[in-house]
Amino acid sequence: MKSFSLINALIAIALSIIAYFTLPDDFASVQLAFIFGLLIGAIAIPQISKLISESKKVQSSSDDISSTTTLYVGNLPYKVNEDAVAEYFSEFGNVASVRLMKDRRTGKRKGYGFVEVASKSADKMISKLNDTDFQERTLKVRLAKDKTEG
After folding, report:
1. pTM of the prediction?
2. Shortest CA distance to 69 belongs to which of 148, 139, 145?
3. What span, in angstroms and rounded, lies between the C-alpha atoms of 150 and 52?
4. 89 secondary structure, DSSP code
5. With contact defined as beta carbons under 8 Å apart, do 69 and 45 qualify?
6. pLDDT 10s per residue in the chain (150 long)?
7. Which element (helix H / strand E) includes 50?
């Protein structure tokens, strides 16, 4: 983060100098150029820095999901949707996908599902999320068992 602060300061100074040379030549223009540069530096540069850091996070998170582990999540609220579960789990690691099981006849949710997460995050998620309250239900989070034939 410190490197972004230095870059912000340098860009703000550069913008002040550019503004100084583009405005008319009188004393007021020096003040305007300074104010203009500081405003641009204070408003635009942090936003640009934020975009750069977010793009780095997106790249690293896509790298982290190269190997995944599937977690079983039980005792889910019946009205919960995939997005809510993904958001809750993403606080503790990278989530690749969420599948909530439904009854074939009625189409109603069964109260359990599977969350595919980055393998590096799986153990942390189990320890942090098992037996936690989620929408007034106590979740049960474990490693999913492999599907057996028969």
Report:
1. 0.56
2. 145
3. 51
4. H
5. no
6. 455 566 766 777 777 677 667 766 666 666 666 666 676 666 676 777 777 777 665 555 554 567 899 999 999 999 999 999 999 999 998 999 999 999 999 989 999 999 999 998 899 999 999 999 999 999 999 999 887 655
7. helix 27-64
